[in-house]
Amino acid sequence: MRQLNNDEIRRYSRHLILPEVGMAGQRKICSTSVLCIGAGGLGSPIAMYLAAAGIGKIGLVDFDVVDFSNLQRQILHGTDDVGRPKAESAKETINSINPNVEVVIHNTRLCSENAMEIIKDYDIVVDGTDNFPTRYLTNDACVLLKKANVYGSIFRFEGQASVFAPHLGGPCYRCLYPEPPPPGMVPSCAEGGVLGVLPGIIGCIQTTEILKLALGKGTPLINRLMLYNALDMKFRELKLRRDPKCPICGDNPTIKELIDYEVFCGIPQEPVQANGHPDEVDVQEMKRALDNPNLGIKVLDVRDPDEYEIAHIKGVPQIPLGLLPQRFTELDPNQTIYLHCKSGKRSLKALDFLRQQGFKYLKSVKGGIEAWSDQIDHDVPKY
Description:
4-stranded parallel β-sheet, alpha/beta, 2 domains, single chain, 16 helices
């Protein structure tokens, strides 16, 4: 472990006077490397506080670009960063906080082909992702490489955190969630929303766990799942145990290498169709239907009421996807219906449901109201 220079002693002085940290502990922190998977909501407070604490090397895995809708919670990025790669924007912010920290950018999607190679060079991995394939991928790679996986997730007003580390005597993510939920069952933050400060709270808890692991102090969240409800301002804790039948960390593991996590989570790659998706129309077709009532085509918005209040298309009625099972009888099964949502995902789900009820003439509007705003009416706000 390297020595601290005078500038670093001044920078970390509030750590150094903690008996549990001191000079030896701060040298441990400065000698630790952490891979942060995701530079978004959770990754923002994690990376910033790790940098402030003096973690020696921070790796950032993110292939996305900054969007206006990120700014409400992803404090690594500012208004001027919109359109920039998140990893580059994050590196700049981290360097401004602490130029002594080495920042390594991995401007790529973490996948089965690159995960082992990327993760192996870091001491600790922190999961700041927002999708199930990457969570299972991160878990399996960490188990195989014997790396601590500091987990966190957020949704709306609730969050959870834990430390998955079978090599330290605890369970892994698969012990808690042996199977992923059905595709589309759990809405993303883009679909369900998230309180902007929530990732700050959960991300700071994850960062605390990282520093404890680096120091070898305290009681980490191994064998425990911490649950947080922001509306009630309540924390709860669940005890976790390693599953001896777990396929990757159990007594007789069957997973010896990384698998196809898109398929495992029920999201197989669909082949690109030359003529587009057979159940989709574009927003130009939707406009034609709205401009020509004689065509007899009904356009239906299947988003939630709060979204409808933010942005809607004049004259288009609404039945939220969640209420379709109770209200589909309001629709004519013999009429052609164009279904639209925010981006085109929920409208395809609505199409599948209505088809099961005997509706034959259905189309989902590709790109939803976002495409309408981009291509038809810029006055319709995007959110």
